[in-house]
Design goal:
Layout lengths: L1 H24 L6 H15 L3 E3 L9 E5 L2 E6 L2 E6 L7 E3 L2 E3 L8
Antiparallel strand pairs: 1-4, 2-3, 3-4, 5-6
């Protein structure tokens, strides 16, 4: 009797483990801020870390350096990050975007 119960418990655990693994294999949608952070991390790791002087008179620490490059102001200066050409190639209000600003259109 105990062995039948053990087999049933084992079968239930296997089914639950299989259901859990299928649920965790699905892609979880991410929001725009998470995507922006992923892009930032990838750009910092893959860039040559180009630093320029940064103007701290503005409120935001993120702005556009040019039509396709962001600048993130840090204490040591401004870090230049190119926007990914295939996804969001334009800098718009300090964020990479698929729409250019009127000046860059």
């Amino acid at each position: 009797m105990a062995s039948v119960r053990s087999v049933l418990i084992l079968a239930v655990l296997c089914i639950l483990a299989g259901a859990h693994s299928q649920a965790t294999d699905e892609e979880v949608p991410i929001n725009a801020d998470e995507l922006e952070n992923i892009i930032d991390e990838a750009e910092v790791k893959n860039s040559g870390n180009t630093w320029v002087p940064c103007d701290f008179s503005g409120i935001s620490t993120e702005s556009c350096y040019d039509c396709n490059t962001r600048i993130i102001c840090k204490k040591i200066g401004g870090l230049l990050l190119e926007c990914p050409k295939n996804f969001v190639p334009y800098c718009n209000e300090g964020k990479c975007s698929n729409e250019p600003t009127p000046e860059c259109a």
